[in-house]
Amino acid sequence: MTTLHRYSISEKSWYSESWLWLAALFIAAILAWVFFSPLYTLGIAGLGFAISLFLRSRGKKRVGDYIELTDKGIIFGESGDHSCIAYNEIKTIKFSRSWLPSQPAFLLETRIGNKKKLQPDDYENGDELREQLNRGFTTFNCKFEK
Predict the structure, then answer these.
(1) Which of 5, 9, 28, 126 is the most buried (most CB within 10 A)?
(2) In the chain, which residues have pLDDT < 70?
(3) Letter string b/e over residues 66-100, b meaning 16 or more CB atoms within 10 A of that residue's CB
(4) Domain-embedded: residue 119
């Protein structure tokens, strides 16, 4: 019997991503107010508002997506579409950094040429997901590239 672990993206998993950027902009706005001009502060506030809107709309588009891990593979549920990748079909795994301060994402390339980017930090319990993925990759001797 295979065990199935499901990890979902919910709206609350996107809040932790935006607070760091907004906090940095808040500090920059205070410094701009003190050392430069209130006009710079207005520009920084507008930038913060634009970033928060972008992150919120990006997050809402992905809410409801999920990933399921079995002993033999990974099942993706994205925007109503379903796909899967068996661990023994993975040709190489590369690490991919994003512009956000987080752990690197996995870029999975299969033997038939399909590529799939997987960022465990986007899912609830991302650390547990990352550990289970690494365990599956190790069990099936998947090749990591730098």
Answers:
(1) 9
(2) 1-2, 11-19, 56-63, 98-102
(3) bbbbeeebbeebeeeeeeebebebbeebbeeeeee
(4) yes
